[in-house]
Amino acid sequence: MKNNLIALLFISLLSSCDKELDVQPQSQITAASYWKTPEDVVGAKSGMYARFRAFTNFNLYYLGESRSEIMGTGILNADFRIPYFQNRLHKITAPGPDWGTIYTVIHDINLILKYAPAIAFTSESTKNTILAEAYTLRAYLYYVLVRTWGGTPLLLDPTESSDPETIYKPRASEEEMFKLITDDLARALELFPTNTYPTRRGAWSKPAANALKGDVYLWIAKRRNGGEAALNTALAALQEVQKSDVALLPNFADVFSYTNKGNKEIVFAVRYQDLEAINNYSGDMYIRDSDLPPGTDAATLQKIGLGGGMNWWAPSETMRKQFTTDDKRKDKSFVEIYSKNAQGNPVYYTSAMTKFNGFVDANGRRFLDDVIIYRYADVLLMIAEAKNALGQDPATEINLVRQRAYGDQFEKHRFVSSTKAANDDAILKERLFELAFEGKRWWDLVRFNKAFDLVPSLADRKGQTNLLLFPLSETVMSRNAKLVQNPGYE
After folding, report:
1. Signal peptide location in the record (predicted)?
2. pLDDT per residue over 267-307, tens digit each?
3. Do 127 and 119 meet the contact criterion of CB atoms below 8 Å apart?
4. Looking at the whole model, is its pTM more than 0.90?
């Protein structure tokens, strides 16, 4: 906790990169006075993760899933969220999250990468691990950026002056961004000293870097014509994750239990803890007791427990109807809530996400579940995806996931390999069932080239591939004259 507070104070003062890269250095703390000891580096690393956690509170979900077919309006006014799932983004009225918070974390990372190498550590392994974490997080953030907006400014050094040429850069090409991403991952994987996990799996590690590498190379293979070379690289990286201390938990619900954070299925999750973080996005998908309709049945009340949060938006009918009743993931993903009409018959009212429903204390329901970046079931399904693209049988990995999901009903759902196209459809649907509300679905749909087929709000706009990217907000554009708007949002 002390390191976190010191780091946050330091980074807040030293950071010369505000929300929109409109930079005016004001700190009296300089590199000469701060970057002296290993403790300085450790404190800066804590600040880096604290800033990253602030980004994952809401924005990571908005970017990675909100535009998919998973969410719709709840009983309250979904407000600014509506243009996401309706795919009606606009550079002024509904641009979505901007990239300012991401670049703030990148600035923190660049400070570490610039100054930490020159500082003597008692343990070289400790220093290498910190550098590896920084390289991995930078790769991840640029991967978020390039999938969301396409090419964006490529900043490799901390912003420590007000020189416009240093601060304001044009958009890099996607090719340049993927070069940086893959180079950073290569450096990180060389630096991580062991294939182990940190305590509670709340930081990047070698297995997590390999999970990210597999993800990146699947995108390169399927969206950037990377071909078999990229697929083989993805598969090899994902299979390296399997060599680490990781396993599917027997019970799906246990993966998400607040009291079971950092379990063996987690590869990397952003740590949320009381007094260090506020409620995250999951609180916007639950429901208050006062908003439940009269006569809600006992079974539903038991699933909800003590209410909380706000039902701003809710799991969509498009998603809900795809789950079978014998899928154990259904109840731990969402609950449907019914009122009664004048004749006493049930009428659909709303639904609530139950996967990340936090915990209850004297203050009510608290939404402080960790935000999972990678877990083993995700890795298994990415292995299946890579195998299928390479013409190999993906059945083993798919069936491992399905065995847990269906238990004694598994034989009814056993996967048998078919054509590549049919297998891909099965893998994508399995990812829907397994990873709903984990911030993956939009990017999955884009990677599989299925957004226009499966998202209702895009069904009549096939061919408008510019919609796969977010617009740059007018605020971002106004602060950097070198930026060019994404096509279709001019």
Report:
1. none
2. 999 999 988 888 899 999 999 999 999 989 999 999 999 99
3. yes
4. yes
